[in-house]
Amino acid sequence: MSNESNKAEVEQVEEGVEVEASTEEASLIDELTQANFRIEELEQALEQANAKVDEQKDSVIRAAAEVDNMRRRSAMDIEKAHKFALEKFVNELLPVIDNMERALQGTSAEDEATKAMYEGVELTLKSFISSVEKFGVKQVDPQGEAFDPDLHQAIGMQPSADFPANTVMMVMQKGYQLNERLLRPAMVMVSQGGGSVETQA
User: Fold this and answer.
1) pLDDT tens-digit series, residues 12-43
2) What span, in angstroms and rounded, lies between the C-alpha atoms of 192 and 169?
């Protein structure tokens, strides 16, 4: 009888241990499942955070590029403004230079009556041109050069034995550039070469 009761007690203890073990296992499985869910949640949160960081990096890079472009455009605009701020002023001075050159053509250094006036106008003109050259103004005087439609405006063409075809044989009015930008083209007569009939443009 005591053997049987011992056996029953052992069976009860074993059952209790098994129940306890299965409860512990179930609890452990629950904890692992919850841990796995938590890990998945954290991984998703990390992916979202990384995506947001990448998006913000891209925004920062684009913003930096835009700022850099604006800075470059502003620098170019300022440079152009400095280079060409005098354009209107110089355009107003060009007729003055033209008139001085006409005054030189109407007088002569050889004629005693006009010699003093010629020398005075010539010195003034040289000084004037030297002054405007300091600010980037350059004369376009293409006498004897090949015709360049970017710098010259042809008034007409004439046959000439002295000049090859498409050569500037006469400058009616000099042209001017300001910092390599054309302010006014030179008005020129262009040679057709020898033996052609005159045509007007």
Assistant:
1) 655 655 656 677 777 788 888 888 888 888 89
2) 10
